[in-house]
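Give me the fold.
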Amino acid sequence: MGDREAYPEAATAFGSLLAAHGFGLVYGGASIGLMGAVADAVLQAAGDVTGVIPQSLVDKEIAHSGLTQTHIVDTMHERKALMAKLSDGFVALPGGIGTLEELFEMWTWAQLGMHDKPCVLLNVAGYYDELICFLDKMTDSGYLKEASRSQLQVACSPEEAIRACKV
């Protein structure tokens, strides 16, 4: 859940807003962490939640048992591909390397024209400030085109993230 109360608070608020705005949630299917909190909030608000989880994580007993729908897959590659197919947009909350890997893959796919779905970085309590500065440095240094940089939207609140998804 991270080291700040702002992270789970934002996760819960984001989940409630998803449901209130008629969005379902597609995510990795776990009962733990910030995404587990998002899923719980969507479910509490009577929204639909689809989990996509590899069997190996089901075996570790971290699968969420109360989802609207669960897809059990064999590999992480299958997980990401199915989540991408089922999703209308991508929002990254504070997280670790798996979060970054998934975000960068979806953003790269947008850059390559493989989809035109929103990619949003939810920068709760400045969590991603240094990453945003680095992405700007990449752009300034000529390694990231401005058109590609602008495909990753930055939201500082759950409400901003919802607005970015409505584009």
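The first helix runs from residue 6 to 20.
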